[in-house]
């Protein structure tokens, strides 16, 4: 019951006009049979008197019914779409509202997000909006039953249970058959996906080449048929069962109608009621029957249930309000002194940081180096407050960053896997906080100015081939866009700039130019730079080496080289390989 009320409550997202219009149409549709019964009664009873009134009544009822029928689907679609829009926005806000990313990364959270926001692909898939509209229609069915019952009771109140009870029993039985059918279908959905997959493989040109060359067509069709039969055999078997059961179940409302028709006919013959009343009652009994056999809402309600449940479970993740951005023009505070104190952190089943002690001093450029998988990116995500340490603390000017409101707006990051928005260059950099005065400067600093001059629409060129007049950029140019985005945030108040492999896709010259400019463009900002190219990090004020979950070396390039530790070994090895023309990344095997 609660789930059903919740569904009706979703109409608050459809807007009052649409909700009122749809409710009116559903109610008109529901009372049309009773209205026709009354109009027919009036017509028959007119008998010689002017039939103008009854004819007008009949015309009005029929017309209203037809109009309601014509508008019900588009208005219902509009309501469902608005509800779905609000529902999906709410889910996105819920997930976005969690300041750390560990919750969003959880498999159970991902599964629920997928369930609750998926577009319907198969006949069993339904959205929240579909469920809400079906629930309203169910209310309409109840109104239809009540209004027809009123007409039936004019003959005898016994006619109401005699017709309505078998009709409700039929609806319940047939509804259960549909729910069972639905569940059988859903149980085999894994095989459904598989045979869909085999079907796609069989018909795509790329796969077609391989299948022909390797003569694997028969093998693939075998899989296709086997998986399809595994899924559809139980469904077809249940189809047959439903059809067999439907005949038996239909006997119930038919028996109710037959009793009503016979009773009324015999009564009229015996002079118990007028012909006019008989016609009205027979029409109402037919209406009860027709309401009983409309069970299409059952699938919508059942299909929307997992969507609603997943949404309710996501509601429990308890989001915080999305933190405000730092604003341009506000006197930006100087960069803080950041201290990692004995920080430990694990992903599920894997400890990555094991007692990190580290200082990021105000305004310094700090290079963080280490082998692949050492935990460098993880450390910067902890700094950005995207994860919380399992133990230990990260302090900014003595306060735990978890207790600093809007901490994330004080940072700017170029992530290794930065996003490429299919939007204009302007939006890709400003992310909606447009300030033309800042844009030109960061584009120049990121080395993007020549690219912008070649774009057909300048800053407003969509960076996606799928958009009208859109263009795509090269990997290196996209990286410059990500850098410009990060620099833009620093101009708006961020005071720590994290660069995680910011030049991995840049050519040597562009990279060299960028690092030459970096000290000037990041003045009064702390910079944390992660790079595998040790030739580029050597210019940093300080270099720290992360190994075995701890900071094991710290100093300037010269100090670390003189120390002869792991950094010195890595540097020497990389310099040698570079001079021989090899790629300059190192992994554990190189140091053995
Ligand atoms: N979201 C995650 N869930 C589970 N494990 C993760 C996740 N992100 C990273 N890891 C694991 O944590 C370890 C450290 O990863 P991280 O990306 O921090 O290393 P890194 O030093 O930045 O590596 P690279 O130099 O290759 O970029 C790796 O073993 C990685 O597989």
UniProtKB/TrEMBL annotation:
Signal peptide: none annotated. Its main location: membrane. It is a multi-pass membrane protein. InterPro entries: AAA+_ATPase, ABC1_TM_sf, ABC_transporter-like_ATP-bd, P-loop_NTPase, Type_1_exporter. It is found in: Cell membrane. Coiled coil: none annotated. This is ABC transporter ATP-binding protein. It comes from Nonomuraea maheshkhaliensis.
